[in-house]
Amino acid sequence: MSLRLEWIEHLSPAYALAVALRRDILRKPLGLGFTQAQLSSESESLHLACWDDEVLVGTLLLTPHENGVIQMRQVAVDDRRQGAGIGRLLVVESEREAMRRGFIRMMLHARDTAIAFYEKAGYTRIGEAFLEVGIWHQEMVKNIPG
Ligand SMILES: CC(C)(COP(=O)(O)OP(=O)(O)OC[C@H]1O[C@@H](n2cnc3c(N)ncnc32)[C@H](O)[C@@H]1OP(=O)(O)O)[C@@H](O)C(=O)NCCC(=O)NCCS
What we know:
single chain; alpha+beta; Aminopeptidase; 4 helices; globular; binds coenzyme A
């Protein structure tokens, strides 16, 4: 296994692979896809890919907000490769890049099944659970550096 992290361009060939992985891992199980409008709106986000040689094994995106806050979204690891540290690599690199760009707080909406993953990465829950795309989510935050 030779893992490599790369910040990729919106609408690049690598981005198309990342969208396909997000679709498979996050959307298809819910009977959902992405609209063109949703993908177009991601032009202002930062897109991170994790490669094993030439195979995309994980991805996420970061969406800047105001007041030094940036949101981690759509964290997806190939289901054959989960539990092997790829998700943690993606999160750590995201925090490093967000800090480098001057952001002071990472926030996210965690699926209830992923809350423990983010807690292990130092995130804390804020407020009440809420429904998003039909499943329970929890807002979580971490000051960076944490
Ligand atoms: C959640 C997800 C991103 C985690 O990535 P991963 O590569 O599987 O996680 P890692 O191997 O880096 O795990 C890091 C730590 O978190 C733990 N962990 C990972 N997923 C977990 C989960 N769902 N629940 C509890 N703990 C979890 C691991 O056991 C590991 O713990 P350790 O440090 O004690 O060994 C990945 O499993 C995934 O894509 N799941 C499906 C999509 C999803 O739910 N995405 C998040 C949407 S908010």
